[in-house]
C-alpha cells in the first residue's frame, strides 16, 4: 500500500465509476487511479469506488479510457 494506505503502490486495480446513474467497471494502473482521485478531489464530477477486496478477474475488464493521461503528475 502507498502512504495513503488505501491504494496499492503498484499493479492494477479494479475501479468503479458511477456517472449519471450508470456504473462503469475498469482495470487501471494504481498510479493512474491515484491521479484520477486527485483530479476528482478538486471537483466531484462522479462517484468513484475502489474494489480492493473484490473477487474478480481484472483481466476481463476494459482498461480505463484515457488511462495514459492519468499516469503523469
Any chance you could write out the topology, listing elements then pairs?
Elements: E1 12-19, E2 22-29, H1 30-42, E3 47-50, E4 62-63
Parallel strand pairs: 2-4
Antiparallel strand pairs: 1-2, 1-3
Characterise the protein shown here.
The protein has one domain (12-70). Strand 1 and strand 2 (22-29) form a beta hairpin. The model has no long low-confidence stretch (mean pLDDT 81). It is of the alpha+beta class. It has one helix and four strands, in the order ββαββ. The two termini are 19 Å apart. A four-stranded mixed sheet has the order 3-1-2-4.
Helix content: 10-25%
- Helix tally equals 1
Molecular shape: globular
Which parts are unreliable, with pLDDT below 50 for 5 consecutive residues or more?
A: none
Strand order of the largest sheet: 3-1-2-4
Protein structure class: alpha+beta
* SSE ordering: EEHEE
Would you report the number of β strands?
4
Largest sheet: 4 strands, mixed
How many independent structural domains? 1
Distance between the termini: 19 Å
Rounded mean pLDDT is 81
| Rg for CA atoms | 12 Å
Instruction: Work out the strand percent.
Output: 25-35%
Give me some keywords for this one.
globular, 73 residues, four-stranded mixed sheet, 18% helix, 4 strands, alpha+beta, 30% strand
Amino acid at each position: 500500500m502507498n502512504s495513503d494506505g488505501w491504494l496499492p503502490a503498484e499493479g492494477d486495480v479494479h475501479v468503479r465509476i458511477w456517472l449519471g446513474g450508470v456504473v462503469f467497471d475498469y482495470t487501471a494502473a494504481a498510479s493512474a487511479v491515484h491521479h484520477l482521485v486527485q483530479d476528482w478531489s478538486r471537483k466531484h464530477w462522479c462517484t468513484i469506488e475502489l474494489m480492493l477486496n473484490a473477487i474478480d478477474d481484472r483481466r476481463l475488464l476494459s482498461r480505463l479510457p484515457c488511462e495514459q493521461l492519468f499516469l503523469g503528475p
